[in-house]
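USER: Please consider what follows.
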Amino acid sequence: MTPSEKKLIRLRQARTLEDLRTSLPRDWRIVERKISGILERGNPQDLAEFTKQTIEHHQDLTVLLSKTLPNSSNYKAYLSRFAQVRMAAFVIKDLSRFAGKNVKSQKLGCIDKFLMGNLLFLDGFRRKPVSMFWFQLIWPMIRQRHMLMPLVEPKGIYCFYSKELITHLAGLIGSRPCLEIAAGDGTLTRFLQDVGVSIIATDSHSWQSSVTYSDSVIKLDARAALRMHKTKVVLCSWPPANNAFERFVFETDHVELYLVIGSRYEFASGNWRDYRRQNNFTVTHDLELSRLVLPPELGCAVYRFERKAA
């Protein structure tokens, strides 16, 4: 069996996007650019057409690969395109799970509402740290789990935090004072304060139409917050894609550690242009912590930016 044939088998056996994107970064960049363009245009028909093309290309490439010699240059080209199609399929699957199709015409069932409410919330839309044990037990029982994010995103809720995530974040922060920027309703800071972390929540309060800001969330934009609170650790959960404020974190000399909770898809959160431009920090995609951000179908990711030694 040739290396190309072995690669085809690996592509077919891959069960998650993570299995592919790290080993095939060039192909992933191509896919990411295409999907980023679709989402920026904001036309649902473009995504529907891209989905249709992905299915058709998968079928066509399966036939071409079966008819082409494994050692040929054509086979390698088809293999690269097949990898891109497989990656695109995983992204489409993730996007469609929480697309909220016909959510307005559906009603959340009493049982699912009860399970979601007790698992994820204290009261109303006030979140609680979620036990991974109970989440893994109860989440599969919820039939309408695809409705969760379309219901809560208008309230400025983009993910849920497990108890285990909070414990790990507290360990990383340690005794150092911490600043949360773009803190939204202040949920993450509240959880960390409850386990003894010295942390201040700040936000520009520019999303008042959707976010209910707690009195504990100080009204400061990120740049002003970084100047006023000279903490060594900075935290941000779901910074908007291509935002204009994260660059100030990298320009601030006293920051030693910047923790970002967001998406594994670069087009969905964070300013990746500034992430790549900066050269004072090393970045790590922490897979262990990423698995502790819920629900898993969202494709959440935790990134650690650690200042390089002088």
About this structure: The chain has three domains: 3-97, 103-154, 160-307. DSSP finds 14 helices and eleven strands in the chain. Residues 100-105 have pLDDT under 50 and may be disordered.
